[in-house]
Amino acid sequence: MAGLAPPARPARRWTPRRVVATPAALDHPHGQRIVERVRALGIEVEQLRANRLTGVRGQTDRETYARAKSTMAIVVSPPARRVLQPIAPSADWRVDLAEGCPAHCQYCYLAGSLSGPPVTRVYADLDDILAGLSGYAGRGTVTSRNARRADEGTTFEASCYTDPLALEHLTGSWRRAVQHFADWDAPVQLRWTTKYADVDTFVGLPHAGRTQVRFSVNCAPVSERFEGGTARVPDRLAALRRLALDGYPVGLTIAPIIALPDWRERYGELLDQVRAAVDGVPGLDLTAELITHRFTPGSKEVLLDWYPRTRLEMDEESRARKHGRFGAVKYVYPREQMAELRNWFTTELTARVPACRILYWT
């Protein structure tokens, strides 16, 4: 197995039922490129008369959700999105190339975070977004000025509000971003996380080691029950191996960690899968981010509207109440349970995948 990538399975790709483009988006070269890519896939593009999305809301919340989740809008990014914000503990800066995700994860952390129906918006002003990044180099506080993580350089997180590999075949945005960072001769890094496995366009692409791709993975009971519309975890790990063999820094986002009755056994199986996936990769550069399940009152309300039959545990009485930024309330595992989870993951990940560096636990 050493040095060989497993044969790639046909990648799972999202096909939106409706694609719309605003007039402003079509004024940008990348907006035109997206339209051409989408039409080449046999998908019709509806050109809107105004820079406002219409026809998304249905008569019920469920109908609105279904319409929105099957719609992709080609738009110009809002001005506020082009003023970058820190995204601790992941990266120095959040850079958005899109907003919204076509997957159907029943624990979706975007629920309650974004306003309006969950339409996937892809940004036509990519060239302007990338051109504006240089002013942020060396100014971050999460990695670029952190002694423990300074080797990562100034980091730009490009998956905060979306899943790049779910959209790349439709937009080409992240390939262009990889090329931009490869040409940027500075201590910088582009990074994103994904639940998909369509990496063909990135294998063989010059990247200069300045793009890290992380794969969000979970144990089988969680991924199979709660992650609708995504790639299978074995396929994600196979994609991780392909990129690692191509010299990319890669990572694991183990999230959300859920304290199932048999969580040690189930997550042990996952870590063994990871060990097999990276076996024999020369010069492996692998990190892990460990994120436990949490929810807010707002996200719980939205998720129960979206997935009324979900079996996801969101019981406030069994959780610890925690206050985040600006007084926001979230529910996390109690202190003792959190410590037990953390100790196990830290010990077992180090033992089973010793090359893996744990970036943070939350």
UniProtKB/TrEMBL annotation:
Any one GO cellular component localisation term in the record: endospore-forming forespore
InterPro entries: SPL (IPR049539)
Gene Ontology MF annotations: 4 iron, 4 sulfur cluster binding; DNA photolyase activity; S-adenosyl-L-methionine binding
Protein name (database record): Radical SAM protein
PANTHER family the UniProt entry points to: SPORE PHOTOPRODUCT LYASE, SPORE PHOTOPRODUCT LYASE-RELATED
Organism per entry: Micromonospora inaquosa
